[in-house]
Automatic annotation (TrEMBL):
Pfam families: Glyco_transf_7C (PF02709). InterPro entries: Galactosyl_T_C, Nucleotide-diphossugar_trans. Pathway: Cell wall biogenesis; cell wall polysaccharide biosynthesis. Residues 169-213 form the Galactosyltransferase C-terminal domain. This is Galactosyltransferase C-terminal domain-containing protein. GO terms for molecular function: glycosyltransferase activity. Keywords: Glycosyltransferase, Transferase. Belongs to the glycosyltransferase 2 family. It comes from the Bacteria. Transmembrane segments: none annotated.
Length: 281
């Protein structure tokens, strides 16, 4: 079977440049690195910088908010058209350990024909790293694991709650992707689309697995917690999710955004709170 790597991007050119350097060093190179540009023509130039990596850039139009779900679907569709049987989705901020593609491929081989999504280890890198710090040894020393992710022993697989599916770093066969129906493109902007895909996977008889391996290192970028800049998209996507699956996703964020006065609940729906100016001048 042949494995493709799929990355969606808008901005983050330096992160993508570094990622491409690490993709070039994979112990088991991917069939192709499909890079999906979400309304960012500059992605083409970044992708050309590593000509030794088989690459295909897909342009995904942007209308109202980043089409994260649609971009992932476009990337996997192109990978399949180019002959891939397996796909690895890797966030643009993530640097792949040299064995990431190999580890994911071996895990999917072990799971055989079962409908499975596998999620490897992700470690978060600190702010202020110099370019010379981005070496395999250094990132492994300074990276920190996410608090809610399970870490099986190296090479081991452990069943996971599909509600914790996160496309930051994951892999599946194209057959599993098709059985789940891909991502729901009604989700636009930030939040909910990953959890929805986890439910689609479970509804198709699939299973999420944690993998002890396939390590990735998440490059630092500023964030807000809760992500108040995405409050409108989170509220809209949460309503879509609840109407589809009967429960709220992103419960922590929604509670925190409500406490801060950015969203409110009317009946079962979440709504954005418009903060108008009090300046009458």
């Amino acid at each position: 079977m042949r494995t493709a790597l799929v990355t969606i991007a808008s901005g983050r050119h330096e992160h993508l440049r570094r990622q491409r350097e690490w993709v070039a060093a994979q112990s088991e190179p991917p069939l192709v690195h499909v890079v999906v540009s979400m309304g960012d023509p500059g992605i083409h130039e970044v992708a050309r910088a590593r000509s030794e990596v088989p690459t295909d850039v897909v342009d995904c139009l942007v209308a109202d908010g980043l089409p994260l779900a649609a971009a992932r679907n476009a990337g996997v569709s192109r990978a399949a058209a180019l002959g891939a049987d397996r796909v690895v989705l890797l966030d643009v901020d993530c640097l792949p350990h040299r064995d990431l593609v190999r580890d994911y491929a071996r895990a999917l081989e072990r799971l055989g024909d079962s409908r499975a999504v596998v999620s490897g280890r992700v470690q978060y890198l600190p702010e202020g790293m110099a370019e010379a710090d981005y070496t395999p040894g250094r990132v492994a020393r300074v990276g920190r694991d996410h608090a809610v992710r399970v870490l099986p022993a190296p090479g081991e697989l452990e069943r996971a709650d599909p509600r914790l599916l996160w496309s930051l770093s994951m892999a599946c066969t194209v057959a599993t992707w098709d059985a789940a129906g891909g991502f729901d493109e009604r989700y636009v902007g930030y939040g909910g689309e990953d959890t929805d895909f986890g439910q689609r996977l479970a509804a198709a008889g699939g299973q999420l697995w944690w993998l002890g391996g396939a390590a990735a290192y998440h490059q630092y970028h500023p964030t807000q917690s809760p992500p108040v800049q995405h409050a409108a998209a989170i509220a809209r996507n949460a309503n879509l999710f609840r109407r589809t699956w009967g429960f709220d996703p992103m419960e922590g964020w929604l509670r925190e955004l409500a406490a801060l006065g950015h969203v409110t609940r009317t009946g079962e729906d979440w709504q954005i709170v418009e903060h108008g100016s009090n300046n009458d001048a």
